[in-house]
Design goal:
Number of domains: 2
CATH architecture of the largest domain: 3-Layer(aba) Sandwich
Structural class: alpha/beta
Distance between the termini: 49 Å
Shape: globular
Number of strands: 11
CATH superfamily of the largest domain: Type I PLP-dependent aspartate aminotransferase-like (Major domain)
Radius of gyration: 24 Å
CATH topology of the largest domain: Aspartate Aminotransferase, domain 2
Helix content: 40-55%
Largest sheet: 7 strands, mixed
């Protein structure tokens, strides 16, 4: 069995308890056509089987982590009410739950006073952070590394803010010398530091960026959509740990609970250290915010309607798995990193594979060894297909040649980028499955000796 089904009975019992809270109302029973619904759901089931097995440990590709069962159940439970966390009229209970859940995330970074809320995901969360940055530093440039998420450039275009991309070092982190060169030119309003790039999982040197901030006076926004929860683990290397240790000093943070926070899509979170930025959001509504003098979440959000069910799912998860160091949640995340480190060591120790740099979080990038980068790209795509046939699902990533070259002595780079294999080992269970994953990769490497020779002969002919 791939799907967890045991918890489903809890949903029915919880729904009966929820329904009991409304028994003081006049009798009303919504009508449903169960027979027709069953036919539709059977069709949905058939269609949904055309998916990769995301919950299974042999899915080791993209950033897809199964929600915790309690998050799924609490989300589904809330959908029988379908609250809207824009105004308290639409989501009275779920709005309070959102504030409590967001406060717990902020506390993870050492922030007691803060402003923040949930949103549809990292893109919307980063847009809000850069929108605030643009209002506080009008006309100033946004800068981020060349390995930062592509949406920072796109968001800057939407907000009509200048954007500059900064080269990266040999570990795909923002290059501090290149950054300072841009800073010396002036007009930089915000530096985006990425703690967990989506390509390689690299962690920008936040502590050193903050040193530059003291001299140049820019805002620091941290895109920790992927890596934000790693602030809780105790098995990072010293450089990454130093960056996470300084998160309490930045101006804004984005983290996605729908990545490592065990939540259904879409659930992002944006946090500001200074609650006074809430005045930037101020707007008038003729009908929305009069049911209470308390803060309505729509008053500090660019989005209007937002699913209260997301807040309920997150709140329930945090009640079960608090965000504390050495807690159950943190230990599960540490196992994800251990899984990545274990697989990296296997790959590094086998002459048939090439690695780039050790994982800083739980993402690793590697490739089959060959003499030319074009051959490596072909082999990577072949491995990707063959692994899927063996029910091991990986991902592909194109690395710029200048990023791979320092790590691959003897490889001839005949193309500007090289296609590599990539895995996000996001499930704690991956740690127990690494030996099985490695055995599949070894079999694939054995079976591709002839294919590799043919590719290399083809290159010689060219």
């Amino acid at each position: 069995m791939t799907l967890e089904l045991e918890s489903f009975e809890l949903l029915y019992e919880s729904l009966k308890h929820l329904d009991a809270g409304f028994r003081n109302l006049p009798e009303f029973t919504p009508k449903v056509d169960l027979e027709r619904m069953q036919r539709v759901l059977e069709e949905v089931t058939e269609r949904m089987q055309d998916n990769y097995p995301y919950p299974h440990p042999l899915y080791a590709g993209q950033m897809l982590k199964p929600p915790h069962p309690v998050a799924r159940l609490a989300y589904a439970l809330a959908m029988w009410i379908n609250p809207n966390n824009h105004a308290l009229d639409g989501g009275r209970a779920s709005s309070v739950m959102e504030k409590e859940a967001v406060a717990e995330i902020a506390h993870m970074y050492g922030w007691e006073d803060h402003l923040g809320h949930l949103c549809g995901g990292g893109t919307m969360a980063n847009m809000e952070a850069l929108w605030v940055a643009g209002r506080l530093r009008p006309g100033r440039k946004i800068v981020a590394s060349s390995q930062a998420h592509y949406t920072h450039r796109r968001i800057s275009e939407v907000l009509q803010l200048d954007f500059a991309s900064v080269p990266v070092d040999t570990r795909a982190r923002i290059d501090l010398n290149a950054l300072e060169k841009i800073l010396r030119q002036g007009n930089v309003g915000t530096v985006v530091a990425t703690l967990g790039t989506t390509g390689c999982g690299s962690v920008d040197p936040l502590h050193e960026i903050l040193d530059l901030q003291q001299h140049y006076g820019f805002r620091v926004h941290v895109d920790a959509a992927y890596g934000g929860y790693f602030a809780l683990v105790d098995n990072l290397d010293s450089d990454a740990q130093a960056s996470f240790d300084h998160l309490n000093q930045v101006d804004s943070i984005v983290v996605d609970p729908h990545k490592h926070g065990l939540q259904p899509y879409g659930c992002g979170c944006v946090l500001f250290r200074d609650p006074a930025v809430g005045t930037i959001y101020k707007h008038d509504s003729p009908y929305t915010y009069f049911s209470s003098n308390e803060l309505h979440l729509g008053e500090i959000s660019l989005e209007c309607s937002r699913p209260g069910a997301s807040a309920v799912g997150l709140w329930a998860t945090l009640r079960l798995l608090p965000l504390v160091k050495s807690g159950e949640f943190a230990e599960g995340l540490a196992r994800c990193r251990n899984a990545a480190c274990s697989l990296f060591q296997y790959l590094k120790g086998d002459s048939r594979f090439l690695t780039v740099f050790p994982p800083e979080l739980d993402i690793i990038v590697w490739a089959p060894r060959a003499a030319k980068s074009s051959t490596i790209s072909k082999l990577s795509r072949a491995y990707f297909e063959q692994a899927a046939e063996a029910h091991l699902h990986l991902a592909l990533v194109d690395l710029p040649a200048e990023l791979a070259r320092p790590h691959w002595a003897g490889v001839g780079f005949d193309e500007p980028a090289v296609t590599c294999l990539r895995s996000c080992l996001m499930k704690p269970e991956h740690f127990e499955w690494i030996d099985r994953i490695w055995s599949i990769l070894k079999r694939i490497a054995d079976s591709n000796r002839k294919t590799k020779r043919n590719y290399e002969k083809s290159n010689l002919g060219n």
